[in-house]
Automatic annotation (TrEMBL):
It is a multi-pass membrane protein. It comes from the Bacteria. Belongs to the cation transport ATPase (P-type) (TC 3.A.3) family. Type IIA subfamily. This is Cation-transporting P-type ATPase. It is found in: Cell membrane. Residues 6-79 form the Cation-transporting P-type ATPase N-terminal domain. PROSITE patterns: ATPASE_E1_E2 (PS00154). Pfam families: Cation_ATPase (PF13246), Cation_ATPase_C (PF00689), Cation_ATPase_N (PF00690), E1-E2_ATPase (PF00122). Coiled coil: none annotated. Keywords: ATP-binding, Cell membrane, Membrane, Nucleotide-binding, Translocase, Transmembrane, Transmembrane helix. It comes from Marinobacter xestospongiae.
Length: 904
């Protein structure tokens, strides 16, 4: 195939011939052959950083520079042992950072993979959904509003097709597409008969033949600019890195001042003092914190993905746990989106429909009696025919049973046709479609123009009953003749079936002359005859019912926002357990309300029916004006503004359009409401764990550092030597802190109310915690040290005890932090998780080693500890836990009467 061909200058027939394609698309065999020749339709993966570069980048951090500086000076002073411990801290830290960053990057890459776009194609004469990268030149691709164009296409048909091509042309206004060739050389923007890969369909429908894939596409040629690498970066991480930088600076300044004070005022020997100050700096710098926070977030991203919630914009992971209102679609999210027609009303008669699923087996019944096709009134047959023709879905039998490609509701209409022995394939062959007005959520109808072989033309219309009754002036009677419309009767019937929770769809038709081949909305303004109604059931998802109950328990409100009939919406609302504090609000009523009124009403109302996408945007704003943190779901291209505006925009992975996914923060792989709630739960867990990591790291670092500062300033001997403090940092910071990143969800996580907007992680409460813990650490360390000295133990043994006490207190403090959200000590909390125990066991083994192994004793200048003293050390840890717990109880009672947790 000639790559340099100007496809836009050629007519449709010429292009199809050149690409050897027919209207039935390529055969599977041909597709495979072309895939061999052209490769996959994808752009090359962005260049990853080389492993060595990634490893070296771990050292590019002011915290590490300070540590490396300290290592260099200790080496110059001949303290090679201290140098090696500092270097070990730095290396271990870099190794953990490197490994975890790799894991985070892989997690994100895997998630991107899950978001790979799909394309609707016609192959072997059938509509199919395939992965976008499987397309080959010559494939016939179907386009609909919201789709991302999957390859460069020469359009074959276009019905009101508009495409936004900003990524190629910079022009944000959508371009109206056509099929006529464009003469002469022209710019990309002028090639109206082309649809380019990566651009977005904003409205209409079309079909195009693939002329270029992968790197051969227009976007492929400029792909350099699209290949940026994404890293795990969120506001909190930036805030924490900034904090860590400031802390480092502060520590260096304080250390410098202490050095000057010690040498000049206290006249202490420089060398010793310097080593103490190095110990102080290493103890105080939270070198492990950034890595552990990244791990915590990466663990959260993965946990959400396991629960079918894919985080697209990483900062969202911090917000999702704070969501206080979830606004959700109904169809497919709360319900299963497995539709079946159960009621047909036409020709003044009310039929039931038997059978389950999409299999076209079952009968139509009238008053419980099966009705044969021939006995059905003409109006019923006309209704079924219009349902099959005004329809873009395909029904096919697979090994797993009957399946629908396209809209499940339309699939159900095909099943209905099959049950009535009016086979859709035959109908469609006989009544060819000449034009279409695609469904859109504002009009709530879809219309097609069909012609039979004899040239008779017919407009078929299907949509919401109210929308169709506006357009119709007559109706079909049982015999299929047009009589004046009885609007009140139909409204009453529609209401009746909607109240049973059925989704109602109406049908209308109108014959037109043979020569009429273009359909526009003016054609629907007169002469349409109403045929009848169908009622479809779409059962609620069982898991959605449980998830709603969970939300209510967690203080999260749920609002159902649907395009469906108000009575249907209300009935489904009941079935899934949405509390009804105020009557449902319809889109029309919502439009009459001012912003202020809406803000008030939106709080109490839980069901919004017959809404359009613009209403969603207003609702998000109204709820945000009331201080709520809003999650909003959406699937269509018109939902994009609301998704963007919401604090958490959630797109449907299955039925959602690419346009909706692109602006969303979260994509639900299974379109399921329960997955949103699972994501909120994981979001809360991540936030709790971030709190725990920070709440453990900063106070313990400050506790260690203040022990040294107090000793230096007061001129007493150091209770812990510099090399011992380096050791503590080496083994505890990287093992205990990391354990907190993997903490599971607490039992009370979904029983707490959502956190308010702007609730900061670095709060006054954290500063208080740092002060309290530092004071307790000081008392513990000095307490045991002076006890040992007064008992006339050697200074070395006193120091060994003090060092072990410090580590034991860190371990007990870890258990306290794990329990931040519960008010009482529980067995579950004491029992801990395997990861916590592994960390604790590792640290304990390390402490035994340096206390009892002779060679370690020589390096660290430690002495063996007796059983009695050993128990005393552990007892100090227990006391620390009890004191902290008491302090928390008092603080909760005094300041925070209605909070259930003691988090920051
Ligand atoms: P949600 O997914 O938000 O719960 P919905 O899917 O019920 O909403 P829409 O898709 O906006 O809402 O549909 C609104 C109404 O439009 C439906 O109740 C139905 O009457 C009509 N409708 C939906 N899809 C089609 C279609 N393909 N053709 C004709 N009419 C349709």
């Amino acid at each position: 195939m000639d790559k340099t061909r100007n496809w836009y200058q050629q007519g449709v027939a010429e292009v199809l011939e050149a690409l050897q394609t027919t209207s039935g698309g390529l055969s599977d065999q041909e597709v495979r052959a072309r895939q061999q020749q052209h490769g996959l339709n994808c752009l090359p993966e962005p260049q990853r950083q080389r492993p060595l570069t990634r490893f070296l980048l771990q050292f590019h951090n002011i915290l590490i520079y300070v540590l490396l500086g300290a290592a260099a000076i200790t080496l110059a002073l001949g303290h090679w042992l201290d140098t090696s411990v500092i270097l070990a801290v730095v290396l271990l830290n870099a190794a953990i950072g490197y490994l975890q960053e790799g894991k985070a990057a892989r997690a994100i890459a895997a998630i991107r993979h899950m978001l790979a776009p799909q394309a609707s194609v016609i192959r072997d004469g059938r509509r199919q959904s395939v992965a976008g990268d499987q397309l080959v030149p010559g494939d016939l691709v179907l386009l609909e509003a919201g789709d991302r164009v999957p390859a460069d296409l020469r359009l074959v048909t276009a019905h009101s097709l508009q495409i936004q091509e900003a990524i190629l042309t910079g022009e944000s206004i959508a371009v109206e597409k056509a099929v006529e060739p464009v003469a002469g050389e022209s710019s990309l923007a002028e090639r109206r008969c082309m649809a380019f890969s990566g651009t977005t369909v904003t409205s209409g429908q079309g079909r195009g033949v693939v002329v270029a894939t992968g790197l051969a596409t227009e976007v492929g040629r400029i792909s350099g600019m699209l290949t940026q690498v994404e890293t795990l970066q969120t506001p909190l991480l930036e805030q924490m890195s900034a904090l860590a930088r400031w802390l480092t600076l502060l520590i260096v300044v304080v250390a410098g001042l202490i050095l000057v004070y010690g040498v000049f005022v206290q006249q202490q020997p420089f060398r010793e003092l310097f080593m103490a100050v190095v110990g102080l700096s290493v103890a105080a710098i939270p070198e492990g914190l950034p890595a552990v926070l990244t791990i915590t977030l990466a663990v959260g991203v993965q946990a959400m993905a396991r629960r079918h919630a894919i985080v697209r914009r990483l900062p969202a992971i911090e917000t999702i746990g704070s969501v206080s209102v979830i606004c959700t679609d109904k169809t497919g999210t709360l319900t299963r989106n497995e539709m079946s027609v159960v009621t047909v009303i036409a020709g003044q008669q009310h039929f039931g429909v038997e059978g389950e699923g999409y299999a076209p087996n079952g009968e139509l019944t009238l008053d419980g009696q099966v009705v044969a096709v021939e006995q059905m009134p003409a109006a019923v047959r006309e209704l079924i025919r219009s349902g099959a023709l005004c329809n873009d879905a395909e029904l096919s039998k697979r090994e797993t049973g009957w399946q629908v490609q396209g809209d499940p509701m339309e699939g159900a209409l095909l099943t209905l046709a099959g049950k009535a022995a009016l086979y859709p394939d035959d109908l469609r062959r006989h009544w060819r479609r000449t034009d279409v007005i695609p469904f859109d959520t504002d009009n709530r109808f879809m219309a097609t123009l069909n012609h039979d072989h004899e040239g008779h033309g017919m407009i078929y219309l299907k949509g919401a009953p109210e929308a169709l009754l506006e357009l119709c002036s007559g109706q079909l009677d049982g015999a299929g003749d047009t009589v004046p419309l009885d609007s009140a009767f139909w409204r009453q019937q529609a209401d009746r079936i909607a109240r049973q929770g059925q989704r109602v769809l109406a049908f209308a038709c109108q014959p037109v002359p043979e020569h009429k081949v273009v359909l526009d909305s003016a054609d629907l303004a007169s002469g349409m005859a109403f045929i009848g109604l169908v009622g479809l059931i779409d059962p609620p998802r069982q898991e959605a019912i449980a998830a709603i109950a969970e939300c209510l328990g967690a203080g999260i409100e749920v609002k159902m926002i649907t395009g469906d009939h108000v009575a249907t919406a209300s009935a489904i609302g009941h079935q899934i357990g949405l509390p009804e504090r105020a009557p449902p609000l319809t889109g029309a009523e919502l439009e009459r309300l001012g912003d202020a009124e809406l803000a008030v009403k939106a709080l109490d109302t839980n069901v919004f029916a017959r809404t359009s996408p613009e209403h969603k945007l207003r609702l998000v704003k109204a709820l945000q004006a009331q201080g709520r943190i809003v999650a909003m779901t959406g699937d269509g291209v018109n939902d994009a503004p609301a998704l963007r505006r919401a604090d958490i925009g959630i797109a449907m992975g299955g039925k959602g359009t690419e346009a909706a996914k692109e602006v969303s923060d979260l994509v639900l792989a299974d379109d399921n409401f329960a997955s949103i709630v699972a994501a909120v739960r994981e979001g809360r867990t991540v936030r709790d764990n971030l709190c725990k990591v920070i709440g453990w790291t900063l106070p313990t670092n400050s506790g260690e550092a203040s022990a040294i500062i107090v000793a230096l300033l007061s001129g007493v001997a150091l209770p812990v030597t510099p090399i011992q403090i380096l050791w503590i940092n080496l083994i505890t910071a990287v093992s205990l802190g990391v354990a907190l990143a993997f903490e599971p969800t607490e039992a009370s996580t979904m029983l707490r109310h959502p956190r308010p907007r702007n609730d900061r992680l670095l709060s006054g409460a954290l500063v208080w915690q740092i002060l309290v813990v530092s004071a307790l650490f000081l008392s513990g360390v000095f307490g045991i040290y002076f006890y040992a000295i007064s008992a006339e133990y050697s200074v070395e043994l006193a120091r060994t005890l003090a060092m072990n006490t410090l580590v034991v207190m860190e371990i007990f403090y870890l258990f306290f932090i794990r329990n931040m959200q519960n008010t009482v000590l529980t067995w579950r909390m004491i029992r801990g998780t395997p990861i916590v125990w592994m960390a604790v066991l590792g640290v304990t083994a390390g402490q035994f080693a340096i206390t009892y192994l002779p060679w370690a004793q020589r390096i660290f200048d430690t002495r063996p500890v007796g059983l009695r003293e050993g128990l005393l050390v552990v007892a100090i840890g227990v006391v620390l836990l009890v004191v902290l717990e008491l302090e928390k109880q008092v603080r909760l009672r005094l300041f925070d009467a209605n909070a259930t947790g003691g988090g920051y």
